[in-house]
Amino acid sequence: YVPPQVRRAQETLDDKKREELGRLKKMVNGLINRLSELNLSSISGQLEELYMANSRKDMNETLTDILMNACVTPVAMPARLMMEHVLLVSILHHNVGIEVGAHFLEAVVKKFDEVCKCDAEGKECENLLALIAHLYNFHVVHCLLIFDILKKLVSIFTEKEIELILFLLKNVGFSLRKDDALALKELITEAQRKANTAEKKFQDQTRVRFMLETMLALKNNDMRKIPGYDPEPVEKLRKLQRTLVHSSSGKETQLRVSLDSLLRADQVGRWWIVGSSWSGAPMITDANSKTQQKVHVGKVSSKIMELARKQRMNTDIRRSIFCVLMTCEDFMDAFEKLLR
C-alpha cells in the first residue's frame, strides 16, 4: 500500500523526470540534425557538456535512440552521413568514457541480430552492418566482433548473407587483413569450402564467384580488384578524429568483445565496461562451476595432498594452487604452472 501523499509525490517526480528527458531529447536531436563534418568539433563539444550536466544513463539512452532512428532506415543511408554519425560516437567514446560506445554498440548488434532473423525486405540490415563496420573503422570495437559476424554469415551462407559478406569486406576488408591476417585466411578457406558444397543450391553462381574473387583480392592485398573501393573518406575522417580526441590511447579504448557476449549481455553481465553494475541471475550455474573447477596439475604425491587437506584446501582449484606452490622448482616454473 502506498499512501496518497507519497503517491502524489511519486507522480510529480515521474512527471518532472519525463519533462527533463523530453527536454534533453530535444537538445540532442537538434545537435544530431545539424551534424556535418565541418561542425563535428563544436557538436561533440556540446554533447560532452551535456554528458557532464546529465546522468550518463539518460544521455547514453537518448543518444542511442536518436542515432538509431536517424541511421537505421528501410532505405540505404548515404555512406558519408553514416560515417559522420559513427565518428561522433567514436569521439564521445574516447573523450567521455567507453560506456558511450559500449551502449551504442550493444544496441546496434542486438538490433542487427533481430533484423537478420526476421528477414526484413528493406535495407535495415545493411545500415546496421555499416554502423558496426564504421565502429571498427574508428577504433571503438576490436576486429574480433567483425570476424564473429563474418563467421556467422558464412555459416548460414544464403544469397542475402553473401551480399552482407561482400558489403562488410568492401568496408573493412583491408583493415581486417592488417589486424589479423591469419583469421582472415581461415575465414576465406571456410567460405571456399561452403561455396563448393553449396554450388547446386544457387541458381545464380555469379555472386558466389564474385565474393570468392573479392576474398582472394583481399588475401593478395590487391585493391584494384574490388570495384568501388575507396579508402579516402574513412582516412580523411580518421585524421579529423585524431585532432578531436583528447587522449592518445586509441588501442586501449577498443572494446574487445565477441558477438556472443554482446547478445547475451543480460545473462552474463557487461564485463567489457569497467565498473558496470550488474544484477541478474548467477553468471555461472552450479553445474558449470563444478565442471570449471576441475584443474589438473599433473601427479602430486599423497604427502602433498595430505598437507593440502590439513591446510583446509577444500576445493579442486585451491588444492591445485597449493600443490603448484609446494612442488615447483623456482618462480618461473610456478608462474608457468599457475598460468596453465
Automatic annotation (TrEMBL):
Instruction: Quote the SUPFAM superfamilies the UniProt record gives.
Output: ARM repeat (SSF48371)
Keyword Chloroplast appears in the UniProt entry: no
Any one GO cellular component localisation term in the record: nucleolus
- Which GO BP terms apply? ribosomal small subunit biogenesis
UniProt keyword list: Coiled coil, Nucleus
Q: Identify the species of origin.
A: Centropus bengalensis
Q: Which PANTHER family match?
A: CELL CYCLE CONTROL PROTEIN CWF22-RELATED, NUCLEOLAR MIF4G DOMAIN-CONTAINING PROTEIN 1
Q: Family assignment?
A: Belongs to the CWC22 family.
Pfam families referenced in this protein's UniProt entry, alphabetically:
MIF4G (PF02854)
Chief localization class? Answer: nucleus
Positions of the MIF4G domain: 25-222
Answer yes or no on keyword Coiled coil.
yes
Q: Which domain of life is it from?
A: Eukaryota
What name does the UniProt record give this protein? Nucleolar MIF4G domain-containing protein 1
**Coiled-coil regions, chain positions:** 181-208
The entry's localization annotation reads: Nucleus, Nucleolus
| Function description | Plays a role in targeting PPP1CA to the nucleolus.
